[in-house]
Write a structure and sequence with these properties.
475 residues, alpha+beta, five-stranded antiparallel β-sheet
């Protein structure tokens, strides 16, 4: 934190203090002016964070063209000279430094221990583009950017209601990242809003560069879980729908992903497109995602359990075929599955980190080549390659990447349990997982709601998507 020191009435002392505070950085511009009133005026700004053309037209030129009949004063500059809407007075070096680093320009006048901060931001922003994290076929194609005000405006454009409230906070002792809470007054739980504001105001973190910094810090009630307690998305329509349902959106400056709280388990298996297609199609695709979730979690473990302990549950013809394939494989089923799963995770990670133009090709070609080579070398069986491939494809059907991560992690644990305790161990482990999920709460709301506790009124938009004329909510 910067030491709180007030301005002097001497302009040169103030400029020397700012130079010392900012360390004579080469991108900090100190420009002194001599308007017609013969009063020394200085403008301080950080190059690259402000719009130079707008600064020249709306700030510097009006000051230089000010009438010589009146002396330049901070109040006169704010009221009658500068053609910028966002102006504020500042009297301390700490507040001045925060303003300069936020894209504001400082105006100092000789003889006054007060400065004027002018908001002329000019940081280059990325254009609004199509969502890459949650793409859809039918529906809005815009997505959030890294600019927090652009993101809040995209939601306000969809929810034209005077009850929408936005509360701004700064977090991070060093980064001083701008945060914004958006909620619908009267629909959102006011106690939860107050609690979130208090938690964010008391964050003890030095840096906030992305939403995960906030999510991990706010997750005080469920520290021993790997499941996400806040939903993140870069789609404005999804956040707008959440605000209309009484949830609270958290915007973080510098990231295109917005957090939504409270969050339920079912939210991570729903897609915005479910609400833009017919309710029959939306319901079928949701059921398909739940099936993919079970396949991703249990398919390798079930194969290991059946081939290791429960061969009597496999049809005879299929069992003979499996035994013939595994005849030359030197590893047990668990080690065989572990090798293939680890190799696929490596390919997945490599595909994500490589340039997009070749990342997908490397993942696809690598999977085919390595799988075929492993079968021909006798390291794994053909059916194991099929099981791992189906499991991998099923993981891509989960709409939320943040939910697919814990499912993929748990898959290895279920494989280990299946190799030692068989289906009985899998059953106990699955029950323990459900019990764990039942005990989780996202800001006071049960994580498995509306299933546990069961709420018949909320089933219209849980697994199935009921038609809108039945009273079901929108996207």
């Amino acid at each position: 934190m910067h030491q709180t020191v007030e301005f002097f009435e001497t302009l040169q002392k103030n400029l020397e203090g700012l130079r010392e505070l900012l360390g004579n950085s080469s991108d900090v511009v100190f420009r002194q002016l001599l308007p017609s009133g013969h009063t020394q005026v200085a403008i301080v700004y950080i190059e690259g964070l402000i719009d130079s053309q707008r600064l020249q037209q709306d700030v510097i030129r009006p000051i230089l063209e000010a009438s010589s009949d009146e002396k330049a004063t901070p109040s006169r500059l704010k009221d009658a000279v500068i053609n910028v809407g966002s102006l504020s007075s500042v009297t301390t070096y700490e507040d001045t430094c925060d303003g300069l680093l936020s894209g504001q320009a400082l105006i100092l006048i000789d003889g006054y221990a007060e400065g004027v901060l002018v908001s002329v931001p000019g940081l280059e922003e990325r254009a609004i583009a199509e969502s890459k994290a949650h793409p859809i076929i039918r529906g809005p194609q815009d997505s959030f950017t890294e600019a927090i005000r652009t993101n809040t405006s995209l939601v306000r454009h969809r929810v034209k209601d005077a009850r929408v409230r936005v509360h701004s906070i700064q977090a991070g002792g060093k980064t001083k990242t701008d945060l914004a809470l958006m909620y619908m007054h009267g629909l959102a739980d006011q106690l939860l809003v107050s609690e979130l504001i208090e938690r964010l105001s008391n964050l003890r973190v030095d840096r906030v560069l992305e939403g995960e910094y906030i999510e991990e810090t706010l997750n005080k009630d469920n520290k021993l879980t790997i499941f996400p307690m806040m939903y993140n998305t870069d789609r404005p329509d999804t956040i707008a729908a959440g605000v209309l349902e009484g949830r609270i959106a958290l915007f973080i400056d510098g990231t295109p992903f917005v957090l939504l709280a409270p969050t339920l388990f079912v939210d991570f298996l729903q897609s915005a497109e479910d609400n833009y297609q017919s309710y029959l199609y939306g319901s079928v695709t949701r059921l398909l995602r739940y099936l993919c979730l079970l396949i991703c979690l249990l398919a390798p473990a079930l194969y290991i359990a059946l081939t290791t302990y429960h061969q009597d549950l496999i049809p005879t013809v299929l069992l003979l075929n499996l035994m013939a394939q595994r005849e030359g494989v030197p590893f047990p089923a668990f080690l065989e599955a572990l090798i293939m799963e680890v190799v696929f995770e490596i390919l997945r990670e490599a595909g994500l980190r490589m340039p997009r133009t070749i990342g997908q090709a490397v993942s696809i070609v690598g999977s085919i080549v390595i799988g075929q080579a492993a079968v021909e070398a006798g390291i794994v069986s053909t059916v194991m390659v099929v099981v791992v491939a189906i499991t991998a494809i099923s993981s891509f059907a989960i709409p939320s990447y943040s939910m697919s991560i814990p499912i993929r992690m748990l898959r290895f644990g279920f494989m280990a349990i299946a190799s030692t305790l068989g289906i009985y161990g899998l059953t106990v482990a699955f029950i323990m997982l459900v019990v764990h999920l039942s005990g989780l709460h996202s800001f006071g709301i049960p994580y498995l709601s509306p299933f546990a506790p069961f709420k018949a009124r909320k089933q219209a938009d849980a697994i199935l998507r009921f038609p809108y004329h039945s009273g079901a909510k929108g996207p």
